């Protein structure tokens, strides 16, 4: 599924002393199956942008075309849009409300008017997709689960609707390191297996760098930079001028290179850095 965002503009509190331009002529093309990372400071327009993709917010001007459907057209039904685009808000577990995990995950598919058989199949698949044991959790109250498990149940509720586009706004916020890594691994598995479009909003440069195909950098409601991770993070000075950083491992490799050690500096993970340093040490011994 392709996504085209054309000249999108959104203004909060228009014609008041508090008027704020949240999106200013934003244009992006996202290809079918792409995994996109969306980064930028608080207030840069990230959340405003993704809420337009789900029809929660309407633009002042511009278009959003998802697989040929202009979702900004007044004739388009929001239900049709939200079948195509699933949005997981930050701290989605705060939206859990049913008495069992099964009922919570089934809520969306039920509202789609699906048969009981289809609902049951989708709920089971979604719970297993996010790495939970269906038989163990289906009859439990979601409020009995750990923070990471609650987050997974909330994500499963969106996945069960089988959207073509999955948007996750800071999906690991507030989680401990293990729960955070588990959630990210499941998101990666979803993309690898089903090739759906995923848009991940995050403040973690490390997470973005190792997961996504391309990065969109936002600043003051505008697109400041778009490119593959190595293309974006090689512009360290520019990112710093926006108040952003680069992955710590990339910083380390840049420093090693500045010291005259011939290592690659387009590296974002500890595993890649270890391999590159050991490779350099092997060359040096030879």
Give a description of the structure:
Helix 4 (116-129) crosses helix 6. The chain has helices at residues 46-53, 78-84, 101-111, 116-129, 134-137, 147-159, 177-194, 205-211, 229-233, 236-241, 248-258, 270-285; strands at 3-12, 20-30, 35-39, 61-66, 69-70, 85-88, 165-169, 197-201, 214-219, 222-227. The mean pLDDT is 90. By secondary structure, it is of the alpha/beta class. It has a domain at 247-286. The radius of gyration is 21 Å and the shape is globular.
* Uncertain residue segments: none
The assigned structural class equals: alpha/beta
- Mean of residue pLDDT? 90
**Total DSSP E strands:** 10
Write down the overall geometry.
globular
Number of helices: 12
Largest sheet: 6 strands, mixed
Percentage of residues assigned to helices? 40-55%
